[in-house]
Design brief:
The structure holds two protein chains of two kinds.
Chain A lengths: L7 E6 L4 H9 L4 H10 L2 E3 L7 H10 L3 H4 L6 E2 L6 E2 L11 H7 L4 E4 L12 E4 L7 H4 E2 L3 H7 L8 H6 L1 H25 L4 E6 L1 H14 L6 H21 L6 E4 L3 E4 L2 E4 H7 L22 E4 L3 E4 L15 H14 L10 E6 H4 L13 H6 L10 E5 L3 E4 L8 E2 L5 E4 L3 E6 L13 H8 L20
Parallel strand pairs in A: 1-8, 1-9, 5-6, 5-8, 11-16
Antiparallel strand pairs in A: 2-19, 3-4, 6-7, 9-19, 10-18, 11-17, 12-13, 13-15, 14-15
Helix pairs in contact in A: 9-10, 9-11, 10-11
Chain B lengths: L2 H19 L3 E4 L4 H13 L8 E4 L6 H13 L4 E4 L2 H5 L7 H20 L3 E3 L16 E4 L27 E4 L7 H11 L13 E2 L12 E2 L5 H10 L6 H18 L4
Parallel strand pairs in B: 1-2, 1-4, 2-3, 4-6
Antiparallel strand pairs in B: 5-6, 7-8
Classes of the chains: A alpha/beta, B alpha/beta.
C-alpha cells in the first residue's frame, strides 16, 4: 500500500496580537479557537523589522531574513536613482515555499497571502492577495479567475471606504471574508493537497481603523469589531470539522497591534533637522534634492544615508558613513511627543545588526565601510531602522506641514506579540520568529530546505 | 469554408442581428486594429454603406497618427462619425498623472455622457475573449446596468445562435461581434482583406505598439516586426500578453491608491 503523503493546513490571520486573541477566546467570542488552543497551546511570536505585512510575509514565504529576500517595505528605491518602485513577488530574491514544495512534487495551494502577487508557477494553485489589481491577474493558473469571478470573489476590502464610512467598511469586510471562506472551502475539497494555506487580511484592516473604538467600548462599533472576529472563529470551526484531528495545522498572525497615539511624519522631522532637503516640487516620498540631502527615509522608519559612490547623487563620503549614522541616531532619539514630552523612537538599529546577506545565518561583524557598500539584496537595506515606542506610527510626510498628526487610523503594528497555534507541527522552543515557520513546515512535509534558508537553531534575529 | 470565412460570417450575422433589434445603435470605434476590423465587417454586412453611426470617445490624448487615421477613413468610407469628449473633465485639467481617475473621467464618463445624449440602446464593440481571462465569461449580447457594471453572476445563456437581446430601461446592451476571434485571427484577416491600420503597429527602430490607446499610458514592445507577416510570426512565439504594455502604469497607480488609503504613502 502506498504511504499517504503528509499534509499540512495553514490559516493565517493578519495582525492579530496574542493578548487580544486570548481575551476574545476567554470572553467566548472565539470558542472554536479557544477549544483548539486548550489542547495544543498558544504561543507568542516575533515579527520582522520593519513590522509591515509585506516584509513579514516575504520572510514567511522564503524562510529568510530581509537581507536575503530583499523585500524591505511596500515602497522602495529603484536601483541607482531617487525614483520610487513598488516591490511585489517578482522582486523576491528567493523561491517561496509553494515553489520549494512544488519542486519536491507536493501539491500546493495558497490563497491571499501577501507578497505572492504576481503568482509564481507552482504545482497547484496560487492566488495572490492584497495589491493584486484584478481577478484576471490574481491567480496561477489564470483560469482560476473564472471560478473566482463566478463567486464574486473580492481580493481585498476597500481601505478608501474605511476612511469615509466605517459602517460600510464593516459590511465590505464581512462580504470579503465570506467570499474568501467560500473559496477556501471550495478549494479544500478540490484536490488532495499536501500544503494548503489561506490568509485572512481583514483583521489587519479592522484593527487599523477600529482599534480604539474597540478598546473604548464604542457603542456603535465595539460589537461590530467582535462580530468580525466571531465570524472568523466560525470559519475556523467549520475548517476543523472538515479535517481529522491528526491533520497538522497552524493558525498564526504575522504581527501584533496596539493603539495608535500619533502618526509621526518622519520625513518631515528629517527636513526640520536639516538632514533632508526636499525637491522644489514634491511628487513622491523620494522627491529630495540629492546635492543637499545627507539622508532621507522611506516608510516605516527606514533611513538611508545619501552616500557618495553608492547613491547617484550621494554627498556623504564613505569615511563619514559611521559617524553620520551616529549623529543621525542621536537626532532621531531626540524626537519627542509635543503633548507629553515622551520619547518617540525607542531604538535606532544599524542595518547589519538585524539583517544579514546570502550564505550567512545571522548578523555579521562587518566593518562600516563594508556594511555601507555591500552588494546584493543586503546592500539595498536602509542604513538605519528606527523602532518607535508602541503608539507612534512612523510614516513619511515629506510634503506634510507638521510632524505629528492623527488621521482615521486608530491602530498600528507591533513586533513582539504575534501568535501561533500549532497542532502536530514542531516549532523551535525559544526566540520564535515568523521566518522560522517555513523550516518547520518543510520538516513536517519531509522536504529538504534550501541551504540558504534561515530558521531553526541557526539564524535568530537579535531582539532590541 | 476556411476559418476566416467562418469567423467573418458569424460576426456579420451578429452585426445584422443587432441592427435588426436596436433602433439606436452605435459602433464604438477606438481606431485600434480590432475596432477597425469591426468597422470593416460592418461595411461588408451592409454592402459598403454603414447605416450605424460610429462613436469615438476622444480623450484628447490619443496618438496623432490615430486622429489622422480616424479622419481619413471616416471620410473615405463615408461613415457617420460622432466624436464625444468629456469637455468638463478636460477643462478641469484631467490628465494622466492620476491614471485611474483620468481613464474613468475621459473614457467611462465620456461614454456615459454620449450614451445619454444620443439615447443609444446598444453598442457594437470589438472586444475579444482572448484579451483577458475575465473576458472568457463575456457574451455576444452583454447587458450593462445603469452604473455600467457587468454582473458576472447574472449572465444570460447563449445557446447556438439564440441571444438574449432585450434589456431593461436605463441599461444598455453591449454587442461583441468579434468575441470569438483571437489576436492572430485579426492579423490574418487584416492581411487577407488588406484592411488599413495605423503605422503604430509596425516596428520602427526596434519598437512597435501591440495595443494602442492614449499616448501617456501606452508603452511599445521590443520588436522587429515591420510587416503583417512578421507580426503574425512574432505572435506565434510570444509569451507576454497583448495588453502588457498598457497595464503596468495603471497597476502601479492602483497599488499607490491602495497604499495611500492604508497610510503607507
Amino acid at each position: 500500500m502506498l504511504k499517504p503523503k503528509p499534509k499540512l493546513i495553514v490559516l493565517s490571520i493578519d495582525g492579530v496580537p496574542i493578548d487580544l486573541l486570548k481575551r476574545l477566546m476567554q470572553e467566548g467570542v472565539m470558542p472554536n479557537l479557544a477549544e483548539l488552543a486548550s489542547h495544543v497551546g498558544i504561543r507568542s511570536m516575533h515579527s520582522v523589522h520593519p513590522t509591515v505585512s509585506c516584509v513579514a510575509w516575504a520572510g514567511y514565504s522564503t524562510g529568510m531574513n530581509p537581507g536575503k529576500h530583499g523585500i524591505y517595505g511596500f515602497i522602495d528605491r529603484q536601483p541607482n536613482s531617487y525614483n520610487l518602485m513598488l516591490p511585489n513577488s517578482s522582486n523576491l530574491a528567493a523561491e517561496n515555499i509553494w515553489q520549494i514544495l512544488s519542486r519536491a512534487g507536493m501539491r500546493v495551494f495558497g490563497l491571499n497571502v501577501p507578497s505572492t502577487y504576481p503568482p509564481k508557477e507552482v504545482n497547484g494553485i496560487l492566488i495572490g492577495g492584497f495589491l493584486a489589481p484584478s481577478l484576471e491577474k490574481v491567480a496561477y493558473p489564470s483560469q482560476e479567475s473564472d471560478y473566482l469571478s463566478s463567486i464574486d470573489y473580492r481580493i481585498d476590502s476597500d481601505a478608501q471606504l474605511a476612511r469615509r464610512n466605517k459602517r460600510a467598511m464593516l459590511e465590505d469586510l464581512d462580504i470579503t471574508l465570506a467570499r474568501r471562506m467560500e473559496a477556501m472551502f471550495h478549494y479544500l475539497q478540490k484536490d488532495n493537497w499536501n500544503f494548503f494555506h489561506t490568509h485572512i487580511m481583514g483583521t489587519d484592516r479592522i484593527n487599523h481603523f477600529l482599534w480604539q473604538k474597540m478598546e473604548q467600548g464604542d457603542p456603535e462599533f465595539y460589537h461590530g469589531f467582535r462580530d468580525y472576529y466571531a465570524r472568523i472563529d466560525r470559519a475556523v470551526g467549520k475548517l476543523l470539522e472538515q479535517l481529522d484531528d491528526n491533520t497538522p495545522l497552524m493558525i498564526f498572525s504575522d504581527h501584533g497591534f496596539c493603539a495608535l497615539k500619533q502618526e509621526v511624519q518622519l520625513s518631515r522631522y528629517l527636513v526640520q533637522t536639516g538632514w533632508t532637503i526636499p525637491a522644489e516640487t514634491i511628487k513622491h516620498p523620494l522627491s529630495i534634492e540629492p546635492s543637499k540631502s545627507r539622508a532621507y527615509c522611506l516608510i516605516p522608519g527606514r533611513i538611508y544615508i545619501n552616500l557618495q559612490g553608492r547613491e547617484p547623487g550621494g554627498i556623504v563620503p564613505l569615511e563619514e558613513y559611521q559617524q553620520t549614522r551616529e549623529q543621525l541616531t542621536n537626532d532621531l532619539l531626540k524626537l519627542q511627543d509635543p503633548d507629553t514630552g515622551s520619547q518617540v523612537i525607542r531604538k535606532v538599529i544599524p542595518r547589519e545588526d538585524i539583517y544579514w546577506p546570502s550564505t550567512s545565518h545571522g548578523p555579521l561583524d562587518l566593518p562600516p565601510a563594508q556594511v555601507a557598500t555591500h552588494d546584493g539584496t543586503f546592500g539595498r537595506a536602509a542604513d538605519l531602522i528606527a523602532i518607535p515606542f508602541d503608539g507612534y506610527d512612523l510614516k513619511l510626510g515629506l510634503a506634510g506641514k507638521t510632524i505629528f498628526q492623527k488621521t482615521q487610523l486608530e491602530g498600528m503594528h507591533t513586533y513582539h506579540d504575534a501568535f501561533v497555534i500549532a497542532r502536530h507541527v514542531d516549532l523551535p522552543t525559544d526566540n520564535l520568529e515568523i521566518m522560522m515557520l517555513t523550516q518547520a513546515i518543510l520538516k513536517k512535509l519531509a522536504v529538504e530546505p534550501p541551504v540558504d534558508m534561515d530558521g531553526i537553531g541557526k539564524a535568530v534575529t537579535p531582539v532590541f | 469554408m476556411d476559418r476566416l470565412d467562418e469567423l467573418e460570417n458569424q460576426s456579420i450575422y451578429i452585426i445584422r442581428e443587432a441592427y435588426y433589434h436596436y433602433k439606436k445603435l452605435a459602433i464604438l470605434w477606438s481606431v485600434g486594429k480590432d475596432s477597425t476590423t469591426l468597422v470593416w465587417l460592418c461595411r461588408k454586412a451592409f454592402l459598403g454603406n454603414v447605416p450605424i453611426p460610429l462613436l469615438h470617445i476622444d480623450t484628447s490624448y490619443k496618438f496623432p497618427q490615430m486622429y489622422k487615421f480616424r479622419d481619413e477613413y471616416s471620410k473615405k468610407w463615408n461613415l457617420q462619425l460622432i466624436i464625444a469628449r468629456n469637455e468638463q473633465a478636460l477643462s478641469s485639467g484631467m490628465k494622466s498623472d492620476r491614471k485611474l481617475e483620468c481613464c474613468n473621467a475621459l473614457k467611462t464618463e465620456g461614454l456615459k455622457q454620449a450614451i445619454t445624449q444620443h439615447g443609444f440602446e446598444a453598442l457594437l464593440l470589438g472586444i475579444r475573449r482572448d484579451e483577458h481571462g475575465i473576458r472568457a465569461k463575456e457574451r455576444y449580447f452583454s447587458p450593462r446596468d445603469e452604473e455600467f457594471q457587468w454582473n458576472y453572476q447574472d449572465q444570460p445563456p447563449e445557446l447556438w445562435d439564440q441571444y438574449k437581446n432585450q434589456a431593461q430601461e436605463k441599461t444598455h446592451i453591449r454587442v461583441h461581434p468579434l468575441l470569438h476571434w483571437t489576436e492572430k485571427d485579426i492579423w490574418y484577416y487584416i492581411k487577407r482583406e488588406n484592411i488599413p491600420v495605423t503605422e503604430l503597429y509596425f516596428a520602427k527602430n526596434g519598437k512597435r505598439y501591440r495595443s494602442i490607446g492614449c499616448v501617456p499610458c501606452c508603452a511599445p514592445i521590443d520588436s522587429q516586426a515591420g510587416t503583417i507577416d512578421e507580426i503574425i510570426q512574432e505572435l506565434e512565439t510570444t509569451t507576454t500578453s497583448e495588453r502588457a504594455g498598457r497595464a503596468q502604469d495603471k497597476e502601479d497607480t492602483y497599488t499607490m491608491q491602495k497604499l495611500r488609503a492604508l497610510g503607507y504613502m
